[in-house]
Amino acid sequence: MSALRRGVALVVLAVGALTGAGCAADDDGRPLVVVSTNILGDVVEQVVGDEAEVVVLMRPNADPHSFEISAREAGRMQGADLVVSNGLGLEEGLQQHLDAAADEGVPTFVAGEVIEVLDYAEGDAAGTPDPHFWTDPARMVDVVEGLEAALVELDGVDADAVRAQAEAYLGRVRELDAELTRTFEAIPAERRALVTNHHVFGYLAQRYDFEVVGAVIPGGTTLAAPSASDLADLVTAIETTGVGAVFAESSSPDRLVRALAEEADVEVDVLPLFTESLTEPGGGAEDYLTLMRVNAERIAAGLA
Amino acid sequence: MPTRLAAVPALALATSLAVAGCGADEPPASSAPPDGPAASASDDHGEVAGAVEVDEPPLGLTTIDRAGVVRHLDLLDETATDLADLGRARAVHTDGRFVFAQTPRGVEVVDSGVWTWDHVDHFHYYRAEPRQVGRVVGRGPVTVATTSSSTSGGSGLFFGSGEAVMLDTGALADGEVVERYRLDVAPHDGMLVPVGDAALLTEPGPTGRAARVVVLDAEGRPTGEEHPCRHAASTVTTRVGAVVGCADGALLATVEDDVLQVRRIDLPPRADAPAPTSFAGRDGRPTVAGLADAGRVWLLDTREESWRLLDAPVPLAQVTAVDDDDEHVVGLTTDGRVAVIDGGSGDLLATTGPLAGRSLRDGVGVPTLVVDQQRAYLSAPAERRLHEIDFADDARVARTFRTPTPPLLLAGTGR
């Protein structure tokens, strides 16, 4: 906080204390919708358009589990006309504020409550709900329909305008679903496997008939002086699935590709996917539809 | 870390703003872990660098030498950085991020600036600027008990003088030493173990040794609940919960639906081996290992709530459990080799050459084993070496790092 801005804060505080009012400066008469994740933020903005003021709490390129909010944002949440969250345990760091807003009587919309929930299939979290529903556009259709119903109820919005925007966006999400179906059809059935250390593609796999093969992706300390045993888990996953690409977050994908070639005689590409956050504009996944398309193209290109 | 304010007036301002519910640019309202680089861009103090999320574990070896210099070796780029100069340090503990060093004046806390956040279904990895956080004053040897989170909850310190101090871990992440509470109890070799918002505190019996644990609430007040734990001697946190070792077994404390549960895991009946006096394992796993004596290894599975005794194939000075699919157990032999043991059969799978023989023979520093999923690390103080061992590949020494001074104490960080 610069000295100047701190000064402003103090003045605002003083005014607030004197009048006993909240933050009138933010109030332009439109209802306020506060959204937790930036993926849902994009979707809400598409549906509500200019009919409400939308505040998205999670910044680009952040981690939905652990991002933190300012006291001001927490305060705005309490004064919101609707709070939209992902739910299913995604927003761990934010949950206390979500609960507090709900306790204050702020209307809430939880995406996880309007979809058919999938449980994690494996690992320590097996059997617990998987919150990453957005990797399936059909689930997102359910969420958009639920959002539409919640948003048209807000005082001060033009319900017809919201309905029209929701219909238009639903069309685009359904189009995305159809497009992904076509894109993935190019991948032979026997190669529809995502060998990955990402944990978010359970819903996508169910929708488009992929098998998710979790694999240990050797990282920095291992690749510094690798042995065949370091790569065994990944090599087994690659060989049993016959894929030509693995999808992994790796800070040194080139080193991994080289190690696989040298130590195990395996030739694959190592490709990253977008997972839990939109990027800044120009970052490659600036909105939900783009994020999904880019991932689908990378998967199709890697496995074709 | 985003918009962290250490100065008291700023915090007071933040509190007022939180009440007013509006303002310009306040610190975070929660003590949850930091988000990515984008949010830290709003921090224009220039005083505190932001935490950034990274793609893989930012593993490091943080050592302390005779002069008290805290040195951090980055295992990814192989650079070494001096983090602090503490003067003489006698022991060290880490939660994978903070280094708690026992000095003549108390405990110095150093933030290694690297950590892993365990979400159970996956992990997130962070880097921030390392820094010396501050001192906790206390007298006598200290036992430190930490949780699996290095951004929230508490860290418990128990000094031999009977000073039991619960630190606010979230405040450590913000660069401040904040004592949630400090209790003066009967001096003994005890511990204060955080479990969720609650804690377990040992109490001595008539002999002066720890005889039981009492449950404390979030403010450090006894709840009235207590559990016998004769000769409580060690504590460790596993994926399942907090473990306190007793002479006849262990207590396992977990929080389920906001309620503290303490269960007893008795040693097997007719076990003629003493309970371990220390536990070690891989972060995020349920099973830990400890020595009954040089010839026998206890494995405590906190998920199955069971003990298993293995005959050590070679005499051991230290042991830890990898708890992977192959049930690897890694030990330091009494002659300074790293031994890889099949935790299922007790068979010796491989050993390195003598790596820390001189350190053990001459009593130089504390040679220490740290394990992760793929590698084990061993500090060899007298030899001035840090070794990286590939336990799954015939105990191959993958890398060796020379150190400028003897690394007397070792903390595995970025975990």
From TrEMBL, chain A:
The record ties this protein, via PROSITE patterns, to: PROKAR_LIPOPROTEIN
Subcellular localization(s) per the UniProt record: Cell envelope
Enumerate the UniProt keywords alphabetically: Metal-binding, Signal, Transport
Signal sequence region: 1-24
Key word S-adenosyl-L-methionine present = no
Q: Which Pfam families match?
A: ZnuA (PF01297)
Family named by the database record = Belongs to the bacterial solute-binding protein 9 family.
> What's this protein's name?
Zinc ABC transporter substrate-binding protein AztC
Q: Provide the species name.
A: Nocardioides marinquilinus
UniProtKB/TrEMBL annotation, chain B:
Q: Where is the signal peptide?
A: 1-20
Query: What taxonomic lineage is listed for the species of origin?
Result: Bacteria, Bacillati, Actinomycetota, Actinomycetes, Propionibacteriales
Tell me yes or no: is Repeat among this UniProt entry's keywords.
Answer: no
Annotated keywords: Lipoprotein, Signal
> Which SUPFAM superfamilies does the entry link to?
C-terminal (heme d1) domain of cytochrome cd1-nitrite reductase
Q: Which PROSITE patterns match?
A: PROKAR_LIPOPROTEIN (PS51257)
Q: Which domain of life is it from?
A: Bacteria
Name the chain's protein.
Answer: Lipoprotein
Q: Is Nucleotide-binding there in the keyword field?
A: no
Annotated region Disordered: the residues are: 22-46
